[in-house]
Specification:
Elements: H1 9-13, H2 17-36, H3 40-52, H4 54-67, H5 84-97, E1 107-112, E2 118-123, H6 126-144, H7 160-171, E3 181-188, H8 190-193, H9 196-202, H10 207-218, H11 237-245, E4 254-257, E5 260-265, H12 271-283, E6 288-289, E7 295-298, E8 303-305, E9 308-312, E10 318-322, H13 324-338, H14 345-362, H15 371-374, H16 376-387, H17 394-404, H18 429-437, H19 442-450, E11 468-472, E12 485-489, H20 490-500
Antiparallel strand pairs: 1-2, 3-5, 3-6, 3-7, 4-5, 8-9, 9-10, 11-12
Helix pairs in contact: 2-3, 2-4, 2-6, 3-6, 4-5, 4-6, 13-14, 13-16, 14-17, 16-17
Length: 501
């Protein structure tokens, strides 16, 4: 047990995280299976166990304070981080108040949108985010057992690449893709308009969790819509949106990623009838289709979805490439770094590498031939800028360019989709660890295979969405000998470096 007197940073780092992860995972697997067989009474008992579990509490605190992307974002209380002592104190607060949680207000941060308007990011306090994360641990497995197979956004084990592959399957030549049409639609202010009462009636959870969620929703309401909306900066908001929209896929053949979706229409399908059914479904939730972004296009005319442009060519071949908007946004990021006079070439290379790798990885199943998407011109421009530094010779410049523009292999339309209704909570750790390992290539892929897809630090399988990091045992990042490399969880990597620092 974790006592109140344990307050050092070292004691937090050396907690039994491997044991905690195993404990929580066992409960979540049992919960998923209970819903699969329709035993909601047993499921609610398991959800209460998760809510009371010390393993789940400590993992939730670690997730929101040390692992999440927005971990340094402060709420209305001004706290942007917690010390080890404060994390232990939060564990005690959650332990005593988890069933009667009172949410604080939300900090509002305006975020500019592409159309010139702004959306309001509503950020909870760290303690409220920890409670939401704990509630998510208890709710997500139950709904993952029921979610539609063609819903891919903000779900464990699923990704945009799955949605991309579904479109390829439906629009390729042997499925008559050339004759099909696409109904594109956008839900107007989805997160801001979801009906609270409808949402509560659909959530599978004991009353204590529902009461806490109700208070969470009411803490971020708009004065104009007091019974609608979920705070967009909340840990649990994407899950709540998926719960609300689940079932819309049954209206017609479609692909959904969170609140973005497209419907695939055959020549004889009535587009107006499909749209009417969608509008009726959304009306139950207080939602509307955004008319300005709703359009019906021929598959041969092409359409944008999730940062890609999809098109069936006149010869019937399906093509997917980065969308114009996505490519321009990427180029803007790269140019900002390359042309920044405050950085030297070495720093620029460090900053460019993750951006280039991330972009190339996202588009690895697209058609990327040609100088534009191969980034030849972008790379050449960076080479000329780097060459201006007098202290660098040509070989050093070439080495920095290779570092800034890491190569990522691509294989058009070769992504393998997740099987049917498989879920990371189904307990099939071999399937999920192998699948997650397949996301990587090069030295990381070889290391994962050598380790049988298990973390070299904690020994657990890579059966969740946590990223894999390649750790250099001797600390020398230029030593790429296989014996010097070990693949570990991102969190294990962070803790490994913190213990050495």
């Amino acid at each position: 047990m974790v006592g109140r007197s344990v307050i050092t940073s070292e004691s937090w780092k050396t907690l039994h995280w491997k044991k905690f992860r195993r404990n929580l995972f066992r409960l979540q697997v049992r919960l998923w299976k209970a819903i699969q067989v329709g035993d909601k009474a047993r499921a609610r008992k398991l959800q209460k166990l998760i809510l009371r579990s010390q393993s789940a509490r400590l993992l939730a605190i670690r997730q929101v304070t040390q692992l999440n992307q927005g971990k340094k974002t402060a709420g209305v209380d001004g706290k942007a981080s917690l010390s080890a002592k404060e994390r232990f104190e939060l564990n005690e607060i959650l332990k005593n108040k988890v069933r009667h949680w009172e949410h604080q207000g939300l900090r509002e941060i305006p975020i500019p949108k592409k159309d010139g308007t702004k959306r309001i990011l509503k950020v909870p306090t760290i303690s409220d985010r920890a409670w939401q994360c704990l509630a998510k641990y208890a709710i997500e497995p139950a709904h993952e057992a029921l979610f539609h197979a063609r819903s891919y956004g903000f779900r464990p084990g699923r990704s945009a690449h799955d949605a991309q592959k579904v479109l390829f399957i439906n629009l390729q030549s042997n499925h008559g893709g050339k004759a099909k049409r696409i109904l594109e639609l956008d839900i107007e202010k989805c997160f801001d308009r979801i009906n609270h009462s409808m949402l509560m009636s659909k959530i599978i959870a004991p009353q204590s969790i529902k009461t806490g969620l109700w208070k969470c929703l009411k803490s971020g309401i708009s004065p104009d819509f007091p019974d609608q909306g979920t705070p967009q900066g909340g840990v649990i908001s994407p899950l709540l949106a998926n719960i609300a929209l689940d079932g819309i896929e049954d209206i017609h053949q479609s692909v959904r990623y969170a609140d973005d979706m497209v419907f695939i229409l055959k020549p004889n399908d009535d587009a107006a009838k499909v749209l009417t059914k969608v509008e009726e479904f959304l009306a139950l939730w207080g939602l509307n289709v955004k008319a300005s972004k709703t359009k019906l296009v021929a598959s041969t005319d092409g359409f944008d979805f999730l940062g890609w442009n999809f098109r069936v060519q006149e010869n019937g071949k399906f093509r997917s490439i980065p969308s114009e908007e996505n490519f321009k946004a990427f180029q803007t990021k790269v140019k900002h770094i390359v042309n920044n006079s405050n950085y030297g070439a070495e720093v620029k290379a460090e900053k460019l590498a993750p951006i280039i790798r991330g972009w190339r990885n996202y588009h690895r199943y697209c058609k990327m031939e040609g100088s534009r998407f191969s980034l030849w011109h972008t790379r050449h421009r960076a080479w000329k800028v780097f060459s201006r530094e007098r202290k660098l010779n040509r070989y050093q410049v070439d080495a920095l360019i290779d570092k800034a523009f890491p190569s990522v292999p691509y294989s058009e339309n070769k992504h393998v989709n997740v099987k049917g209704d498989k879920s990371p909570f189904d307990g099939d750790t071999i399937y999920w660890s192998k699948r997650n390992s397949d996301k990587y290539d090069g030295a990381t892929a070889r290391t994962l295979k050598r380790q049988h897809h298990s973390c070299g630090q904690c020994g657990l399988k890579f059966n969740d969405d946590e990223r894999v990091h390649l750790h250099h045992i001797d600390g020398n990042h230029n030593n790429w000998k296989p014996s010097n490399l070990v693949a570990i969880h991102e969190s294990c990597h962070d803790y490994l470096h913190m213990s050495k620092g």
